[in-house]
Design goal:
Layout lengths: L11 E4 L2 E4 L10 H5 L2 E3 L2 E6 L2 E5 L1 H14 L8 H14 L5 E9 L13 E8 L13 E9 L16 H13 L4 E5 L12 E6 L2 E4 L10 H12 L3 E4 L4 H5 L3 E6 L3 E10 L8 E4 L7 H14 L10 E3 L3
């Protein structure tokens, strides 16, 4: 039996066209993905609206999901439309108005050679209610640290894909940040510039300009990131997509993490352990509290995903047709 203690309101998951009780385990311990991380996934959110639960940018998430499957050499046994429908069905089946949705494609049971010659590709979709990814401190601003380890480089792997095995680096360094007493990690890339968090993109704001980086900096260009660039521009702010130096972050007026799980999380302080792993310098971002612009963009984003801005209805897929 598997309790849903850390998966609030999760009742059932979708697997190979059927729903199973959340507590029911049906996988063989020798599935390929369990041993080698040969899987791809998406994190997607649904939000309550006046017309019921709506999934934010479902099409864009599934387009990336499909791309990631191609990168890991999968032949997907479903169409994009099938996968989108499975996501909607899973939210409905769990009777959720607010949901985090996790579709997963993985090489299943067949053989355990590194090349999964005899392993079918299978699809699973789960959904549950998930609050603030970085905890209750998120609204007040989190404290982050630049970890000594550098982000995996774009020359080594296509980082536009969300591949399960890649995230072991995120897990290790996310744990290390917490062992050091910080709420989240920040990676530098091999060039020594700011890359991203373990599962989040980073924005810095200076003189009311929204500044983030792109895939050349060894990041996953997140869907929340892309959405915020458009929303900020529509609000009249200047936006800038360019490399972020450490000094850009330390001297920013405001800074925040963004991502599907993290949504918009202000960064209050940053410690730098990249040059001195034992005794990092600590920098306060702005006045150490969520800035006015970050607060505004977070408010507008919350309204957008809840269907309160008609110009962004194109980004919403309603769970009930």
């Amino acid at each position: 039996m598997f309790p849903n203690t850390h998966f609030s309101k999760a009742k059932k998951y979708w697997y190979k066209g059927k729903f199973y009780d959340w507590s029911e385990g049906i996988f063989h311990p020798m599935i390929h993905a369990l041993h080698y991380g040969t899987c791809t996934f998406e994190g997607i959110r649904a939000y309550p609206t006046v017309n019921g639960a709506a999934i934010f940018r479902l099409k864009e998430h599934i387009d990336r999901f499909w791309h990631s499957a191609e990168v890991v050499k999968m032949t997907v046994p479903y169409s994009k439309e099938d996968i989108m429908e499975a996501c909607k069905l899973t939210v409905r089946e769990n009777e959720l108005d607010s949901a985090y949705i996790r579709p997963l494609l993985f090489y299943s049971y067949g053989n355990l050679g590194l090349v999964p010659k005899f392993c079918p590709v299978e699809l699973l979709v789960g959904a549950w209610e998930w609050g603030a990814y970085l905890g209750e401190k998120a609204d007040q601003g989190v404290e982050a640290c630049i970890v000594p380890n550098r982000r995996i480089h774009i020359s080594q792997l296509d980082l536009s894909a969300k591949l399960g095995g890649v995230y072991v680096q995120s897990t290790i360094n996310g744990i290390e940040a917490r062992e050091r007493g910080y709420d989240e990690a920040i990676f530098l890339n091999l060039e020594g510039r700011i890359a991203e968090g373990p599962g989040e993109n980073i924005f810095v704001i200076k003189d009311e300009v929204f500044h983030t980086n792109n895939r050349s900096e060894s990041i996953l260009e997140g869907i929340t990131r892309t959405s915020l660039l458009e929303i900020a521009a529509n609000l009249g702010y200047k936006t800038k997509v360019a490399p972020i130096l450490k000094e850009d972050l330390f001297n920013a007026d405001e800074a925040f993490f963004c991502g599907t799980a993290a949504e918009i999380t202000p960064i209050a302080k940053v410690a730098d352990f990249s040059d001195n792993p034992k005794d990092g310098s600590v920098y306060t971002i702005g006045d150490g509290r969520p800035g006015q612009i970050t607060t505004r963009i977070a408010t507008v984003f919350r309204e957008v995903v809840r269907g309160q801005h008609p110009e962004y209805h194109k980004w919403l897929t309603y769970v009930k047709d």
